[in-house]
Amino acid sequence: MKKVLPEEKKKFPLSRSRAERKGADYRKAFIPMTSKVVVDGNLITGQNPFSSKETAKVVMKELEKQTQNKE
User: Fold this and answer.
1) For 51, which of 21, 35, 42, 44 could close a Cys bridge (C-beta 3.0–4.6 Å)?
2) In which domain, by residue range, is 64 found?
3) What is the reported pTM?
4) What's the pLDDT tens digit per position in 30-71?
């Protein structure tokens, strides 16, 4: 098991294993350093900086859906 330094814990308070123990469904890109976006209800996450463009598109699409549902 990897040791976590106290300053790392402040930056990343919820590690992958800890998140999974709390019920998180962790997903990552098959190929490292590629885009990976996951939508879970109102939560939209991008894995890394390479996901920023796709994340923005997904956010816009989800906002459009909400706007259409209100009309």
Assistant:
1) 35
2) 34-71
3) 0.68
4) 998 999 999 988 889 998 999 999 999 999 999 999 888 887
Determine contact, residues 45/24, Cβ cutoff 8 Å: no
- Torsion angle of the four alpha carbons 8, 9, 11, 14, in this order, in degrees rounded to the nearest 10: 130
Assigned domain for 58 exists: yes
Calculate ∠ Cα 14-63-70, nearest 5°.
125
Query: Can you point out the beta strands (E) in 1-71?
Result: 37-40, 43-46
Burial-class residue 49 by CB neighbours within 10 Å (0-12, 13-18, 19+): exposed
Q: Into how many domains does the chain fold?
A: 1
**Residue 56 within a domain:** yes
Instruction: With respect to residue 59, please indicate whether it lies within any of the assigned structural domains.
Output: yes
